[in-house]
Write a structure and sequence with these properties.
Blueprint lengths: L2 E8 L10 E10 L2 E10 L8 H7 L3 H4 L5 H12 L3 E4 L2 H14 L10 E3 H8 L7 H7 L12 H15 L33 H6 L14
Parallel strand pairs: 1-4, 4-5
Antiparallel strand pairs: 1-2, 2-3
Amino acid sequence: MNEIFLDTETTGLSFKEGHKVVEIACVETKDLVATGKVFHKFINPKRSVPEEAFKVHGFSSEFLSDKDTFDKVADEFIQFVKGKKIIIHNAPFDLSFLNGELGAIKKKLIDKNLVIDSLSIARNKFPGTSNSLDSLCKKFNIDLSKRTKHNALLDCELLREVYINLLDAKEPKFNLTNIKEDNNVSKEKNYNKKVLEIPESEINLHKQFLKKELKKNYY
């Protein structure tokens, strides 16, 4: 079974309070190695983007105004993730939005049995510390220099690297510059085979962390 690394950006913290998805990114891998297939869409939420949300992801109401609404991309999204293991950091957050959007247009919801929450894995491995995506990247010496704002596609790449380290797996990294965002398979297959290892000293340095996780600190 192939894997999907998935992330979203939204207008706020709760679908039930009227907030909507503004970006979906899904990166497909096979045995944690990128296949080159990507689903990436910006979405018109049909509502304003609060200033707090704009500061996080940088997507304004004006930028999103000419993008497709969720119902226009839903079938393509469903087909892309169908039958694949889906890995999400803080899965309840993203699933609440995606299944909320899918339910609103009477589409089949994402099967929670196919979803792996990497945040839960991290909490089990590193109890009592911050396990936000940023914190885990720092813990595993993963480059965060490109993450000036939250971006679903970049976060999928970072999550894949974090997940490999959480599993103590050793796989080649992929480069998003070799991936086309229109679901076409890239012809380039150049992988960086740098192995990420966790120094013992790095673990010992992380004794005090922020108490809030990534999505809870979302805005």
